[in-house]
Amino acid sequence: MTQSKSMDSPGKAAPHWILKLMSRLHPALNSLTGGRAFNTLAGSETCFVTMIGAKTGKKRIVPLLHLPHEDGVILVASQTGRDEHPAWYANLRKNPDVEIKHRGTSVMMHAREVGDEERAALWPVCEALYPDFVQYRARTEREIPIFYCEQNST
Fold first, then answer.
1. Are 136 and 78 in contact (CB under 8 A)?
2. Could you tell me the end-to-end alpha-carbon distance of the chain, in angstroms, rounded to an integer?
3. Which of 9, 54, 86, 134 has its CA 20 to 30 A from that of 80?
């Protein structure tokens, strides 16, 4: 008999080494297939966000959940509920212009971290698209940042 986790028991966040390995392996595998495979992770749509590293200035490709909303894309810095922000959080704060690739379509976008009121309005959208965010939020005391990406006008 299997037991399901209750909302009162959010479990543990994924080990950091697994997150790091997946963030490197997933884009590489997607690229090797010409974008035809590895477009999901654990059954959820994935997008590949190309950004510039805050410290290194180097290009980074990060696989994140693809959370379309209105004319943009939501990016959630949840890191499965770990107590620290993911490394890409600092990248977007310093270099908010990104390329978001989803199923072979690339769009240049500008990411902005949303404020408290907008974040409160976006959480139900995020949780409807990916219900595990409920558990991620329960695992940590930090306020999980949300970025809203809008298409560049240039």
1. yes
2. 56
3. 54
Q: Which two three-digit tokens encode residue 127?
A: 């949780």
Query: What is this structure's pTM?
Result: 0.80
Diameter of the chain measured on Cα atoms: 56
* Phi, psi values for residue 42, rounded to 5°: 55, 35
Residue whose token pair is 């490197």? 24
Q: What is the pLDDT of residues 105-130, one digit of tens each?
A: 999 999 999 999 999 999 999 999 99
Contacts 24+ apart (CB under 8 A), 85-89: 85/142, 85/145, 86/19, 88/49, 88/51, 88/60, 88/62, 88/64, 89/145
Q: What whole-number distance in Å separates Cα of residue 102 and Cα of residue 39?
A: 8
Second CATH level (architecture) for the domain 39-151? Roll (2.30)
Burial (0-12, 13-18, 19+ Cβ within 10 Å), 86 = buried
Domain boundaries, the chain: 39-151
Residue 54 · residue 95 · CB < 8 Å = yes
Residue 110: both structure tokens together: 């500008």
152: confidence class by pLDDT, cuts 50, 70, 90: confident
Contact indicator for 119, 146 with CB cutoff of 8 Å: yes
